[in-house]
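Following the same procedure, sequence and fold were stored together, as reproduced here:

>
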Amino acid sequence: MTAVLPLVPFPPLHWWFLATQCHGGEFAYEPQTKFAKQTLRNRMIISGPSGRIHLSFPIQKQSNNTELPPLLSPHFRPVHSFRTLQSAYGGAPFFEHFEEDLRALWHAFLPASNENSKPLSAFNRATIDWVAQQCNWDLQPSNQTPPAFAHSPIDLRSKSALAGAGWGFERYTQLFESTNGFIPGCSILDALMTLGPSAVRQEIQFLTHQASNSK
């Protein structure tokens, strides 16, 4: 095992770098029995007309039984978050190409108003599998129990690491870059919408991890 990765919706580019390129792409998913608040495990960062947007997927209040997986809240309908996605990327070159697939994923894995049993991990894993399919990446996570790393550059479980702290990003074209500047650490959807799968595969190959060289 060479990396520990959390299950997050449409992970950012540095997540995919570790999953596909770092040391042969060997990694493990973190356990999903306990939800960590204020993290990207139920949200993703996208770039919109006004800058950085945190698109959230609220979860139900957890009981004291930490063995139960976090469940998505039915009080925030899928159509609302999808409209936010449309507002951000409706004018992007590849939005129409992905729109129907993403709409189907949204409605299959996010709860309707009367559903109380849609797990967060299932939605997150479905988004990861969808991206991997679009980009022709073969993900092979290890079944090993993740070790207790201490500030390791290959452990993205912490909030700062998952948000992109300590990483160097190859600049790519963003839809609103002319008004907002380049926003690093966005969901991979941001790059997919403007560049398409082939260009994103190339971006991952050039993404460099500065933390391991900054000692």
Summary: Residues 172 and 191 are 7 Å apart (CA to CA). The first helix runs from residue 13 to 20. The two ends are 22 Å apart (CA to CA).
